[in-house]
Write a structure and sequence with these properties.
The structure holds two protein chains of two kinds.
Chain A: H1 2-13, H2 29-40, H3 58-72, H4 77-88, H5 103-131, H6 138-162
Chain B: H1 2-25, E1 48-51, E2 59-60, E3 69-74, H2 79-93, E4 99-103, H3 108-118, E5 124-127, H4 132-137, E6 144-148, E7 154-159, H5 164-179
Classes of the chains: A mainly alpha, B alpha/beta.
Amino acid sequence: MIRVLLVAIALLASAPAFAVEPDEMLADPALEARAREISRDLRCLVCQNQSINDSDAALARDLRLLVRERLLAGDSDEQVIDYVSARYGDFVLLDPPVKPKTWLLWFGPALLLLIASFGVLRYLRRRQNAGAPVPLDATERRRLDALLREVDDSTRSSDAGHTP
Amino acid sequence: MWRRRLLFMLPLAVFGLVAAWFVAGLDPDRNPAAVPSALIDRPAPPFDLAALVEGAPGFSSAELGRDVVLINFFASWCVPCRIEHPLLIDLARTRQVPIYGIVYKDQPDAIKRWLGELGSPYARVLVDPESRTALDFGVYGVPETYVIDREGRVRFRFAGPLDAETVELTLLPLIESLRE
């Protein structure tokens, strides 16, 4: 038990391993922190499901250096991201932008939820209505009485048939 | 009554849509990992590169726009580059289009040896020491081939080794139409 706990604590306390090499880091810790933040949302195009922070690919290193160079040149975070996406397209962004082409991506799940809740609502309402019995109107009443009388008559006549 | 029947058809319609979506996903020509180029129909990024061989002329973006040209990023360590190499040699021999080769992350000596062994299809071979030009083009691997039109705009990008089919059916017709 204690061993499991120790492993869990070690896993929780350990920092994620970055691919950022010491020689790439900026001397200014504030800028370096911004570079890490930006790099987290930039996709390494060689190993597509890693950010450039995490990737050891040569291209990721180039992009990390590029991000830092732009920061040193005084770019804002958005300017750096625009600079990279102007070259590599939206594909490089792990956080896709909201625009007509990505509306389905962003709003599709909400749309599905809306349609589904509409369906569920309709279903529930219908079931509730079905639960409360509607009283018969005058015509239905008369028809039912006539039918019941018919049944009564036929049982009586069949009974009579059995009487010797 | 017909409304009810229509409702019963709904699952079938949904199934049809989903099935069509999946069938489209099975298209062998579809590569979900392909990265579309951000530069299509935009001016080629500015660059000014030195030649691999000292004393030979370099190449800069100012020289683009005179004719349709191919820009090919390659490296001697890149196996797919070796695969597409005979096709480039063929293009160069038939003088259909000038090809400019930009060396990607490689040693000059290694490239010289490689070209000496296989022959050079390139009008000029340029070096890109910090990979800056590659980054500006949005290169994410080698080989990559770009078609630049007569106005200096990027019109086509092919990532990976060119194959005979792409050259015949896409590349050459495109170059032809850009020259008209």
